[in-house]
Amino acid sequence: MRVLINGLPFFGRKLANELQKYDTHSSYIFLDTYNSKWAQLLFFIYLPFSDCVISMNGVTDNSGSLNLVLKWKKKLILQWMGTDILLAMERFNNSTIDRKYIDYATNFVDAPWMTEELKSAHINTENLHFKFVELKTINEEYSSISIMSYVAQKRQAFYGMDEIIQLAMMFPEIEFSLYGIEKADKPITENIKLYGWVSPEVFQEKLKQTPIFLRLTKHDGFSLAVLEALSFGAEVITSFKTDFAHSALTFDEVPKAMLQAIKEVENRNFKPNLALVEKLQIEFKKEKILSNYVKKLKEIVGK
Q1: Among residues 115, 111, 65, 77, which one has the least CA distance to residue 294?
Q2: 151-184, pLDDT tens digit by residue?
């Protein structure tokens, strides 16, 4: 089986690498056709000899690469991620959505709320996870109650910076460590620390030390940061409903979720949530996720 992957580079490149290591009898190649003319040329060269194309992004406007997929009648998968869903719903509502790839492809999501959102744009999807957790060294005990979150520098409002500032004012004794952001657009309190962009290793080391993780985005897919925080045993507060975290669907619900998360950490004597870690290691085990993904690919390709 020969598979080409394009779309969002962070997820596309990682998925290609992991699938290649797991399924050595097949070929998985990521090509960044969004940003590279060379990748576009290679896509054109490799496509006739490929069985399937995975787009790590739902596409609702014209795409030169995907036009070639339709021309060559290759199998197509759209793996919807998050912001692409907002764009699809917006284009559906103003009648500018281009459906030719959607109607031709097999459409996958990895979170139940994404299924419901895409239904509103008349897009039917299947659930297929591609993110996984790996065994990690877990801290035996937290030194104190602290909060961690990720906020993109150029999308501070979208990532809940206003809400985080309000929350920090409500809990002045707790330190809030924010990554991804170097300078806030609005005044922040003394208990908010900004660390900017760091390596995945540094980010994960901080996750290991932090008992509570915030994810207060205006919209979300199945967040890898949330999955990683959970896999370290942290209590997670999200703005979307999930079985594994404290859901706060409005900001009014966030302080209550904070108090509940703090209480649970204290009730465990400042130890990570090892029961949740064990559950995640079963449900999101790397081999299980990759095996299911390869199995689904082979069903679609017919091999």
Answers
A1: 77
A2: 999 999 999 999 999 999 999 999 999 999 999 9
Distance CA 124, CA 136 (A): 36
Q: Exposed, middle or buried: residue 61 (CB in 10 Å: 0-12, 13-18, 19+)?
A: exposed
The C-alpha atoms of residue 266 and residue 20 are separated, in whole angstroms, by 43
Token duo for residue 202: 């540094």
Query: At residue 242, what are phi and psi to the nearest 5 degrees?
Result: -145, 150
CB 195 within 8 A of CB 179: yes
Detail the DSSP E strand segments found in 50-174. Answer: 52-56, 75-79, 106-109, 126-127, 146-150
Q: Which long-range contacts (CB under 8 A, 24 or more apart) does 106-110 make?
A: 106/75, 106/76, 106/77, 106/78, 106/300, 107/58, 107/77, 107/78, 107/80, 108/77, 108/78, 108/79, 108/80, 109/79, 109/80, 109/221, 109/222, 110/79, 110/221, 110/222
Give me the amino acid identity at 247: S
In the predicted model, is pLDDT for residue 248 greater than 80? no
Instruction: State the CB neighbour count (10 A cutoff) for residue 237.
Output: 25
Whole-prediction pTM value? Answer: 0.89
The C-alpha atoms of residue 168 and residue 174 are separated, in whole angstroms, by 7
The per-residue pLDDT for range 225-243, each reduced to its tens digit, is 899 999 999 999 998 877 7
Please tell me what DSSP assigns to residue 137: P
- How far apart CA 239 and CA 84 sit, in angstroms, is 18
Count other C-beta atoms under 10 Å from residue 14's C-beta: 16
